[in-house]
Queue: 2 jobs
Job 1
Amino acid sequence: MITQTAPITPRASAPSSPVHQRRRRKPSLHRTLSRVLIMLIVIVQVYPLAWLFLTSLRTEHDFATGDPFALPSSLTWENYARAFETGDLGRNILNSFIVTMGANILIVLFGMMAAYAIQVLGFRLSRFVRALFLIGIIVPVQIALVPLFIDYSAVNLLDTYQSMIIPLAGFALPMSIYLFSSFFEYIPRETYEAASLDGAGPYRIFGLITLPLSLNTVVTVVLVNSIFIWNDFIFANSFVLSEDLKTIPLGLQNYIGAMGKVDWTATFAAVCVTITPLLLVFLVLNKAMIQGLESGATKG
Amino acid sequence: MLPNRSRTSVLVFLLPPLLLYCAAVLFPILQSLFLSFFSWNGISEMEFVGLANYVRMLTADDIFWRSFFNALLYLAICLVLQLGGALVVASLLTSLRRGRELIKTLYLLPAVISTVAIAFLFIRIYSIDPVGLLNQLLHWVGLGSLERAWLSDVNTVLAAVSAPEGWRFTGLYMLIIYAALIAVPKELEEAAVLDGASKWTLFTKIRFPYIRPVWITTTIMATTYGLRGFDIPYLMTNGGPGQSSELLTTYMYKTAFTSTDFGYASTISVFIVIECLVAVGLILFMLKRKADS
């Protein structure tokens, strides 16, 4: 490995004269500068979230009169109690789980199957089918709202879990297929040929070779999609009306609508409750998630 | 191709995903295109009107044009915050020795938060009574004269609803750009430094050209996401006050679900799709021309 002798901060003009002489002083100055700058940026980026949590622990009085930057004069969990009492947050979280699970199962299974058909089995029109799936990456989801609303009401699917799961899975499918097929490219042909010689058909090969080998990609696909599905607002808002089916974003929206101007601090607590599950998952799995987001994005 | 695959096996694997995809994506696109030539409120008889919806949209609808220009400004603000911010932070990050993983994680945090929560958070940040973070900050640094209700002021509301979207995803683009910067071969950089290249030259002549493909991808991603931005403006102001923060997407949504004018709403959504395709085409075209010259 080459040690980092070259200062590589892009900003700031640098010496064009003897390098090694300046190398010792300059980099440290640059490094301090960039360290300070990056700290500032990170603080600006993260402070609003910290503020959200701090405010959820304030008393109502403290919030209404105090300086928003000040630390709470006393901490209280009562806001959380009130949030759970008024809202149906438990129910909302359960619904979000159901929708996220349902959509993820479809995305993973169908994504894997389609990629297997296109990449491994191969067929005459496979290029065309691949291109067809690409459309879903570019096209904005809004175009599907009106048609789906009309179609759902024709077949009585409005106000169901499926009404959210179908478009969420459908629009995520292209990326999933893409990730799986680029992984399948790396499984050597010989593996398949050997299995074929042993008499395994396409179904057994899928079950015994392709599926077990792609577990890493499954994790990537699930992690990346879960963020977007868990937080989906637009499909849920368009297709779901009954309280029993509302997912977290909708439940929270309801709560804010009802209590946002009445009980400030409890609303902060409710917001915190709804963002905590995913934040925890993210903090625990952040390595895998970051990797997933990187590969999902750069390959797509 | 597998030796003992059969036509049935291809169909078994391909049909279920293709059906789901058609039902959720392809068929609705065609249906929107179809509906855009009709006038229909969902209840009465559908009436074929030919291009009338398109003519109305392009020539007689002031709100449409207002929303279109608002959406462009919204996009511009998002792009500067997301891509500009991402590039600066990613570059700074490469010069750090420790704590890179921690900063990546922290910087990405907003991306896992729902838009509803973000909208609420920023409404409170912009608030004037009780005083929110922004107004308090302005007060402290002596810019008290700038204090205002950011979301009720027609001059600031559009910028105010754009910033949260930029804040939310800048971490994602930073990750991607950072991964690309890390992959720039160290030998190239060292050689350039030995040749006396300044850091700015190093950046413009070595690093940036090297990450160009990734930059194109992120630009396309950020642009298409920016053009379809909906949740945050819808939740924060619902396009108001007046139409000052109306985007094409929020206008389309209201046309469809408040005025139940399904035909005209479909016309607008067809326009949004075309806009996305044109934007992607333009980006590729401009970058190609720049690369050629």
Job 2
Amino acid sequence: MLEILLDATVRAGTPILFATLGAIINERAGIINLGIEGLMLIGAVAGFAATHASGSLLIGVIAAFVLAFLAGSIHALITVQLRGNQIVSGLALTMFGIGMTALFGKEMVGLTITGFERIAIPGLSLLPVIGKPFFNQDLLIYFSFVLVALIWLFFYRTRWGLAVRTLGENPAAADTCGVPVNLYRFLAVTIGSGIVGIGGAYLSLASTPMWIENMSGGRGWIAVALVIFAGWSSPRAMLGAYLFGGITAMQLRFQAMGTTISAHILQMLPYAFTILVLVISTMRLAKGASQQPESLGQPYDREDRK
Amino acid sequence: MPDFLQIEHIRKTFPGVIALDDVSFSVTGGEIHTLLGENGAGKSTLMNVLTGLYHPDRGEIRIDGQKVGFTSPRDSLSCGIGMVHQHFMLVPAHSVFENILLALDNVPNLFNRKEYRARIKQLIDQFGLDLDLDSPVWKLSIGAQQWIELIKLLMRDCRLLILDEPTAVLTPQEADRLFSVLQQLKQQGKSIIFISHKMREVMQISDRVTILKKGHSIATLERGSFDENRLASLMIGTDQIPEWQKNLQMSEEIVLEIQGLSVRNDRGLSDLDSFDLKLKKGEILGIAGVAGNGQKALAEVLTGLKSASQGRIMAKDKDITHSDAKKAYIAGIAHIPEDRKSIGIAPDMSVDENLIMKSFRNGAFSHWIFQDKKAIRRNAAEKIDQFAIKTGPDGSPVRYLSGGNIQKVIIARELSEKPAVLVALYPTRGLDIGSAEYVHKVIADGADRGMSTILIAEDLDELLKLSDRIAVMFRGQLVGYVDPRNTTREEIGLMMSGEKQGVAG
């Protein structure tokens, strides 16, 4: 029972995990990206279309990354190069994503592909309790584990990562140290967006191997909230994503068991949880234990006179 | 052989302002070259051009005779030019190690932590500094943060170091230590551009001095051919300096007393820690201390911007810390804030409107619920005349005024209600000498009328000149009082670093 619940937890949490990781990379560089929801949809539709056309899941994942990368570059152009308003640009990106994917996805509704299949890792998958949920999964899930570790190593063990973190804290300091501020910010936004796209592709290539209009169902917004919960750290993003996944898995389980509680209320639970998480983590922020990058949301203009 | 650095005919404009207009000077290897000028003369702008932060409209920079065009700080760094900015370029949340590491050249992206830690540690030890590499920068004193900035440049082997008013945040002793390090670096053949407006220091360490005035470089003088008077007259020119006389105040009546006051900051640390202070009627009480030792919290708690976690504030033997009387009393305290543009004025409103901000409820400026524009205008004309404020066209936003005139607007407003107590936080910071003298005159005149002033300043000369008594603060506590007519800069310096106690009471 616990194994099954944990398994569903990981599968429900993974798309949000990818999206949260991508958002963390954006925000660490000081750029707020509220286009996550739109980027997930773009990733989902691109991944599905490419896989359907080529028959290759790998090409699907790559297509999801590339298309979300390109869509993210619109946000990067507006917020980094043109120093536009990050909130407005991000919201526009989400609207754009919802509209475009509905338009181009129309012909794909009802088509099917063979999605990612489970591959058991020898040895590890035999562990009690955690073996099956974590080590008898599909390749994208294993990739998400690797990504969590890589992003942590990138931020805390490489000079690039240090430079990106400095961009979020004090871009002027990075600039005077010779860091190309705009280039690095641009790359952080686009690569982060690409990773969000993979989260979208997980929905259409693994969770349910098909395209459904607006299939991200608000997960992008949950990712935006989880970034704060995670304190901009990738391991904690994993915890947050699985917490959300766990509640989703449980409410599905309740529904399957046929409780008398209305399905609508159960479906609401993960989102109510998100609000709760935001309240708690914001209270912690207000107490001064803030992990938030200090220059988050502020455009950088070298010649700005203060 | 050409000079190491030549700057020729640099011009830089910002929308509506000519910051630099035809500036030329040169720096040779192994010299300490001082840039002297009043605030607003263009020193910092010029240095930002030199470090590639600003792009000049005209003029050229040559290094070893070769023309260079800097498009970013990266370019100037690769030419060996580094700068300690007045507002430090540090990340408070990152560790000392991370801040220094980012500044290093040629660090591989996957670096060897141990190796780089050892190299940085070596340099820190070489200067006998006590810096914990893993401590986040925000926990360090401002003086220590400045050392980190200097180490960043030295690790990069910069040939030219620019220091923008480095001594503003140091005790006299720390400043002396900095100067001896600068002399060492000079002996190693490094060039240093030193920016200051403290004459004493300029005389002490400069090989040459270039004077900037209103965006022009007006003279470069060799050591031996300048003295304080000559530099001052070149720097100020023919501007009028108001004259004032200071009278000794003798009253022993205590108007305000602070007992064991503690104030916590956003990080939960104590900005003020069992702080005591007594303010006498009609006196100017100077507060000396290195920036960041609780001065700001003191001003904020006295003006009601922060509340105390412990201790008492007594106004004439009445405890007003938590009573309703506090609000009324504090409303009567005039406040010249530290950051005049962000909390001293409403920048986009006019001079007239800014001048009545403290008394807008006063019936004199209203008809029923509407503003009485005529009365407001009359009040402004009076104040502008009385305080010699140079304003633009009527009704233009106050932010277009110069720093000195903005300060006069604030002072005119704050003193209009004849306060009993004035809390002035760095009231002359960033002002030219004429405006600064004007501020001093207003404070001294106020004292003659019986107004008590708490004057928080960083320039010891200013404090020594103006104060009746000086209280020294260190780490949020009162170290003691000194008599400005009977003390030395050294004594105050030792008290500012907590090494010496003064007299109590």
